[in-house]
DNA sequence: TAGTGGTCTAGACCACTCC
DNA sequence: GAGTGGTCTAGACCACTAA
């Protein structure tokens, strides 16, 4: 609708052109006009369409590349990036037992039930407490050794299709499942790391001694438009965890 | 020596001009030709001096600003940034007891001794094992409550001046001390986070129960030229720790 | 060979800081 | 008012990809 030669409207406050452009591109991504893994128009096309110079388009795209929403390939084009959860804190658990290669843990759903969103979790998600929700409890294993215990909360109205599937058939990864059956794409997440001593039931499920140090990772997963989609808390053995960071 | 109008030598391999410029500026910083908190030449001066366009200088400076080595202020100039250890993992300990404001913990040196670098630590520092070193054990407190227990290793030849000072007079922060007495500036650091159950002596010093969850942070601190200067391991109570990160 | 992103130029004008 | 960084332009040429 706003195509082929529309001059950007000037904003009341002072806002750089490239910044306004970035916003426009973000909207196109969140509204799936530009879809994950698809190519977007070339820099010259975008410059003409928005009546700005290529340098300005490049600066807008630069910031989206840095932000992880786009990906550029010289000679090919610019693509909408699918979120990579390789960068999750989970990767700092040494799951690769024995040889080095990464391995997706297998999943066992221990419980699936309908439940109203508890106030504490509703507040973390920014959703109304008491909202109908789906609660999953899931154990993740490597070579049949339990390694992570997870409790997951999903707002029911976005995920009803999950209830029609036998939890034994959910498979090892949930996000592709969300996308396939519920049309819901996870675009980013916020994670929080803490540690605690294992309670007896947690220790038992993970095959540890009561009181052992556990790493606890809370994750709030969001859509491209930052709507909250999933909240989960994961617990794993602290002695399998090392996290590195660079300080400047 | 390479001033006023020297054309950049072309490298054999294909390397962008702005990348070569960034390297040159990094060297000036690490060799203290440009010093912390001092202003560097303006963009136009740098462009003339290196016979490139302003845009290219800007791109080189951009990457150093992103990397945390420089800081720009519109209308004032560009400055060499002093490392900010606000971004250390330590800030995720909730040290601000009671009201919100941050507070530098006070320090008590429990031990200072000359000792050869143990192999494990030498290997982490990338220095030869057995190198003469200074080992400090330090307790950090808020309102007289012990909150962090640290063991610190320094290569002796760079820090001999520390031996002439009474450890009771080291003060609450070591890095300013290093700079003042040893002429050594910490520019960056790598940190690693793990967790463990407290041993009895550690628990006792920190006022915790044996077996309580501890967060362990290892830090390797480097000079601007990435020479290793200090290694430390810090332990604190896990229930006072929350770390947040954004995943994309 | 056509089309893409990557680098680089040589300016212009603006907003801000400081004297 | 002089000097700084911040934004923006309208090109040029290059390296890479794919048909």
Verbal overview:
The structure is a homodimer of 248-residue chains. With 248 residues, chain A is an alpha+beta fold. Chain A folds into two domains: 17-80, Winged helix-like DNA-binding domain superfamily/Winged helix DNA-binding domain (Arc Repressor Mutant, subunit A, Orthogonal Bundle); 85-240, Chorismate lyase (3-Layer(aba) Sandwich), CATH 3.40.1410.10. The first copy, chain A, is 25% helix and 31% strand. Chain A contains seven helices and nine strands. In chain A, the strands form two sheets. A six-stranded antiparallel sheet of chain A has the order 3-4-5-8-7-6. A two-stranded antiparallel ribbon of chain A has the order 1-2. In chain A, β4 (132-142) and β5 form a beta hairpin. In chain A, α1 (17-30) crosses α3 (54-66) and α2 (43-50) packs across α3 (54-66). The N and C termini of chain A lie far apart (45 Å). The interface between A and B is large, with 36 and 36 residues. β9 (243-247) of chain A pairs antiparallel with β6 of chain B, so a sheet runs across the interface. Chain A binds a DNA duplex (19 and 19 nucleotides) through residues 14, 16-18, 42-44, 52-56, 58-59, 72-78.
Largest interface comes to:
A-B, 36 and 36 residues
* H-E string of chain A: HHHEEEHEEHHEHEEE
Overall spatial form of chain A = elongated
Distance between the termini of chain A: 45 Å
Structural class of chain A: alpha+beta
> Strands of the biggest beta sheet of chain A: in what spatial order?
3-4-5-8-7-6
* Superfamily (CATH H level) name of the largest domain in chain A: Chorismate lyase-like
Going by CATH, the architecture of the largest domain in chain A would be 3-Layer(aba) Sandwich
The total number of structural domains of chain A is 2
Strand content of chain A: 25-35%
Portion of residues in helices of chain A? 25-40%
Low-confidence stretches of chain A: 1-7, 96-100
**CATH topology of the largest domain in chain A, anyone?**
Chorismate lyase
Q: Provide the CATH top-level class of the largest domain in chain A.
A: Alpha Beta
Number of strands of chain A: 9
């Amino acid at each position: 609708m706003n195509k082929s030669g529309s001059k950007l409207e000037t904003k009341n406050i002072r806002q750089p052109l490239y910044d306004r452009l970035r916003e426009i591109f973000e909207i196109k991504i969140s509204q799936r006009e530009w879809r994950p893994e698809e190519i977007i128009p070339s820099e010259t096309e975008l410059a003409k369409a928005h009546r700005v110079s290529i340098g300005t388009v490049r600066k807008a795209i630069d910031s989206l590349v840095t932000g992880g929403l786009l990906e550029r390939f010289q000679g090919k084009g610019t693509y909408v990036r699918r979120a990579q959860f390789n960068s999750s804190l989970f990767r700092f658990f040494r799951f690769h037992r024995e040889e080095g290669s990464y391995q997706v843990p297998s999943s066992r759903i221990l419980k699936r039930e309908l439940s109203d969103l508890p106030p504490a979790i509703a507040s973390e998600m920014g959703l109304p407490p008491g909202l109908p929700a789906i609660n999953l409890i899931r154990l993740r294993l490597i070579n049949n050794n339990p390694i992570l215990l997870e409790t997951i909360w999903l707002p029911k109205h976005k995920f009803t299709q999950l209830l029609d599937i036998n939890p034994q058939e959910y498979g090892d990864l949930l996000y592709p499942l969300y996308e396939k059956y519920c049309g819901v794409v996870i675009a980013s997440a916020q994670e929080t790391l803490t540690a605690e001593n294992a309670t007896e039931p947690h220790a038992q499920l993970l095959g540890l001694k009561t009181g052992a140090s556990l790493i606890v990772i809370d994750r709030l997963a969001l859509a491209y438009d930052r709507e909250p989609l999933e909240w989960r808390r994961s617990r794993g053995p602290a002695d399998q965890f090392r996290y590195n960071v660079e300080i400047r």
